[in-house]
Amino acid sequence: MAWYDRLLGRTPQADEEKLNPAQYVISREEGMTIDSREVVTNYRNAYETLEIVNRAVNMIVDDVAEIPFKVGEQILGINNIIKNIRKSRVDILLNKEPNPFQDVSSFKRNLIIDLLIDGNIFIYFDGAHLYHLPADKMTIYSDTDTYVEKYSFNNSIDYSPKEILHIKENSFNSIYRGVPRLKPAYRTMQLLGSMRNFQDNFFRNGAIPGLVLKSPNTLSEKIKERMLQAWVARYNPQSGGRRPLFLDGGLEVDNLTNISFKELDFQEGIKSNEKIILEAMGIPPILMDGGNNANIRPNHRLYYLETVLPIVRKIGYAVERYFGFTITEDVTGIPALQPELRDQAAYYATLVNTGIISPNEARIALGKEPINGFDEPRVPANIAGSAANPVEGGRPEQTPPSEEN
Question: Which of 108, 130, 309, 329 is the most buried (most CB within 10 A)?
């Protein structure tokens, strides 16, 4: 409260809602409506036509969808629609059945594909079930006071901010919509597609570098056209292409270019571009090579730690804020993270054996159910004296020499 508020009779209100004074400017700069700012068709075509893009996207989508969530205790309640929802119901929605029409794997895979191709996820909660809304058809209406006024699907169906769970990818230019991970690799995907199209056209047109027919005489346009038609009809690969060509009247055949078939294969260029695409997606290229390589296991773990788990946590944080329950990812069933779990098990075993924590506390931390009778810390047995009572145990008392005699 300012000093002049007392003179004017103003008193602070404890329940006064503080709003961001810059929100008005932010909403005007972003625009009153924020649509999908990406040409999703381009990324969708690359996903459906380029092998490496399809494999990379499917790899991330399937691995993220495989990780379940653990629902903890309620921490807050911010949404009137979901204030009475129970912990067990949230667990069912996130790990078993989000709605009556989809299994949880199909539901999650649709969400992650949207995140990778559009950079955003939109989920509608009707109070009982979760439904996926295609991100490229969602429009965000900014609010000059709060954050979002409403969401609109296909500019025909409106949703309030309390009904939509929005997860966005990282973005520098917008606080409303994220940038898809495929965008930085778009130029490389175009170049890779051009290489493939050139190869297709090359073999479709006869798989022979251009030939030049030379004649010492000047030919009319009608004769040239007739010869070209005869050449295409007789020596097209689809019609054989092995019959000899008889040249008369001083005609000669010469190569237009000396480029070999090996140079037209673009094998090295394709491999380099595929590596760039994988790195942009966050996938170590070595995982695609396979074989007996000592670096596969640490790269597989790196892929989960730096690519898969951050995506899972983005979804988890958004769900946690929306439903008001603590949400953590359950990685106990992920083979790539098992080495970390072994180290974790040794860590908790040390804490239990030294009496710092109880066995049940360690079991809960490792994702196991507690066992009756394991609630108290253990008393270490390999020390001098008793940890429970220092008076008991330890070095035996010495008998004075006079008493022995």
Answer: 108
Sign of CA dihedral 159, 168, 60, 331: negative
Q: At what angle do helices 51-66 and 104-117 cross, to 10 degrees?
A: 130
Which residue, 207, 202, 152, is CA-closest to 36?
A: 152
Whole-model pTM above 0.85? no
Sequence-separated contacts (24+) of 14-21 with Cβ below 8 Å = 19/145, 19/146
Q: Are 74 and 324 in contact (CB under 8 A)?
A: yes
Sheet of strand 148-153, all strands in order from the earlier edge strand to the far edge: 33-34, 138-142, 148-153, 157-159
Q: Are 144 and 156 in contact (CB under 8 A)?
A: no
The structure tokens listed for 365 are: 């931390």
CB 180 within 8 A of CB 169: yes
Model confidence over 297-329: pLDDT tens digits?
A: 888 888 999 999 999 999 999 998 888 888 989
Per-residue model confidence as pLDDT tens digits over 221-249: 888 788 777 777 766 655 555 445 556 56
Classify the C-alpha dihedral 194-198-199-200 as positive or negative. Answer: positive
